[in-house]
């Protein structure tokens, strides 16, 4: 874990299911994000799948997970930021920015695409960027909202 990016009181490192899974699941639950159906095993599988880089931010003194990012990348040029979540008590302290910077470094990407929620637009607009329309499409067999 290193603390070079973002908030110096947070350290950034690779996701380790044994150490970080419960913290990541706790953040998802606190934000009421059901991305992995609140299933710890599904969460672990999604965050450690081939082609996925998952980074955690941990509080420097306690090691408690305060944020994480899930990135899909080709390792050369292109990446997609699948998830970025920061514990609400750590908002506006540089943790999200630190996770994005760490994601670029670890994924080896020059650009990163993402789908942003309305409440996160200001944050993503603070980076060098180009906005464009996007879609999230779903398989026919499962209803999603």
Looking at this protein, list some descriptive labels.
145 residues; alpha+beta; Aminopeptidase; 28% helix; globular
Could you please describe the fold and organization of this structure?
It contains four helices and five strands. It is of the alpha+beta class. The protein has one domain (10-125): Gcn5-related N-acetyltransferase (GNAT) (Aminopeptidase). Strands 1-2-3-4-5 form a five-stranded mixed sheet, with helices on both faces. The longest helix has 14 residues, at 17-30. The radius of gyration is 15 Å and the shape is globular. The termini are far apart. The model has no long low-confidence stretch (mean pLDDT 89).
Task: Provide a brief overview of the structure.
The protein has 145 residues and is of the alpha+beta class.
Task: Bin the strand percentage.
Answer: 15-25%
Q: Quick one: how many beta strands? A: 5
* Topology-level CATH name: Aminopeptidase
Secondary-structure element sequence? Answer: EHHEEEHEH
The CATH superfamily is identified as Gcn5-related N-acetyltransferase (GNAT)
Tell me, rounded to a whole number, the average pLDDT. Answer: 89
Distance between the termini: 36 Å
Poorly predicted runs are none
Number of domains: 1
> What is the CATH level 1 assignment?
Alpha Beta
Named CATH architecture: 3-Layer(aba) Sandwich
Strand line-up across the major sheet = 1-2-3-4-5
Largest sheet: 5 strands, mixed
The helix fraction, in percent, is 25-40%
Q: Structural class, from secondary structure content?
A: alpha+beta
